[in-house]
Design a protein that fits this description.
By secondary structure, the chain is an alpha/beta fold. The chain is built from eleven helices and eleven strands. The protein has helices at 3-14, 23-39, 67-70, 74-79, 88-100, 105-113, 118-127, 154-170, 184-188, 192-203, 231-239; strands spanning 16-21, 45-48, 60-61, 65-66, 134-135, 145-148, 178-181, 207-212, 224-227, 253-259, 262-267. The strands form two sheets. It has a nine-stranded mixed β-sheet with strand order 3-6-2-7-8-1-9-10-11, with helices on both faces. A hairpin with a 2-residue loop joins strand 10 (253-259) and strand 11.
Length: 270
C-alpha cells in the first residue's frame, strides 16, 4: 500500500493524523492526501501556509476574516504575537476590554490608539497591520477550499492562521469536513486555546490533518507519520514512551506510529 493510502487510512480511523518531518517530502505527502480526498468526493479545507497545495483544481480564497466572528479571539491571538516582552501578560486584558466596546475592527484600533498604556500601544502596533485581512462584512467559507495564507506577511501569518481556525470553529456554514493545517505547530505552540478549538471541532465530526516540521507532545495521542525524523524527535518520543520510534525514519523511509508500541515502516518511493 502506498504511503498516502496508509496515512489516509489512519486519518479515517482515528480522526486525527499528524505528519511530521522535513518540508519538501512532508508537503508532497500532504498534497497526495488532499488529492485522494478530492478523488473520493470529500471536500477538504486547506489552510495553506506555503502556498504549495495547488492540487486537483482546489478552489482558492484570500484569507479574509470577518470581525464579527473572530473578535472574541483577538485578545488571545494578540497576547501570543511577537516581541511583546514585559507587557505580554497585560495585552490580552487590554484588547479584551477594547473588543467589548467595539463593533468594528477600526473602532477597536481607535480605542487602543487613545490609550496611554504601553501595553495598549504594543497591541495597536501589532494589530493594525491585520486590518488588511479583517473585514466588517461577512465571510462564508465553502468547501472544498484552499486558503492562501502564503499571501499574508510572515510576521502576521501565525495570527491569521489562528484566527482562521477560530473562524471555522465559529462558522456554522461549514459542515464537518477534512481540515488540513499546514505548519500546524505555528498555530499551536504557546496557544493552548487553539488546540481546544480543534478538539471541539473533532468532536463535532471534523477530521484533522496536522502537518508540522517538529513533533509536539499533543500529537502523540494520535497516529503520527514521521518523515525523515530527526534525532531530537526520536528522543522526545522516547521520553513519552513511544518505543516504536526506535525504527528511525530516513533514507526514503517513513514510520507510521499508531500508538506507543505499534509502528509500520513505509517506503516513500512506493
Amino acid at each position: 500500500m502506498k504511503a498516502a493510502d496508509l496515512a489516509l487510512e489512519a486519518l479515517e480511523e482515528k480522526g486525527v493524523l499528524a505528519v511530521v518531518g522535513g518540508r519538501e517530502v512532508r508537503e508532497g505527502l500532504v498534497s497526495s492526501l488532499i488529492l485522494r480526498l478530492l478523488e473520493r468526493g470529500r471536500e477538504p479545507l486547506v489552510l495553506d501556509w506555503w502556498g504549495s497545495h495547488t492540487v486537483g483544481g482546489l478552489p482558492s480564497s484570500a484569507p479574509a476574516l470577518p470581525f464579527r466572528l473572530v473578535a472574541r479571539y483577538l485578545p488571545l491571538a494578540s497576547s501570543s504575537m511577537y516581541g511583546l516582552g514585559g507587557v505580554r501578560a497585560r495585552v490580552e486584558g487590554i484588547v479584551a476590554e477594547a473588543v467589548a466596546a467595539s463593533n468594528s475592527f477600526e473602532r477597536l484600533l481607535s480605542i487602543l490608539e487613545v490609550s496611554s498604556d504601553p501595553a495598549a500601544r504594543a497591541a495597536l502596533f501589532r494589530l493594525r497591520p491585520l486590518g488588511q485581512f479583517i473585514t466588517d462584512g461577512e465571510v462564508t467559507p465553502r468547501t472544498p477550499l484552499r486558503v492562501e495564507l502564503h499571501k499574508v506577511p510572515i510576521l502576521l501569518r501565525r495570527t491569521v492562521l489562528q484566527l482562521w481556525i477560530a473562524l471555522l470553529y465559529e462558522s456554522r456554514a461549514i459542515h464537518p469536513t477534512y481540515l488540513v493545517v499546514a505548519e500546524a505547530g505555528q498555530a499551536l505552540r504557546r496557544a493552548w486555546w487553539v488546540w481546544h478549538l480543534l478538539e471541539d471541532m473533532r468532536a463535532r465530526g471534523f477530521r484533522l490533518l496536522l502537518a508540522d516540521e517538529r513533533l509536539l507532545r499533543t500529537y502523540l495521542r494520535f497516529p503520527v507519520f514521521f518523515i525523515d525524523s530527526r534525532l531530537e524527535d526520536s528522543l522526545y518520543a522516547h521520553r513519552y514512551r513511544i518505543q516504536a520510534l526506535a525504527k528511525r525514519a530516513g533514507g526514503g523511509k517513513a514510520v507510521l506510529v499508531k500508538d506507543a508500541y505499534t509502528a509500520q515502516v513505509v517506503d516513500m518511493g512506493r
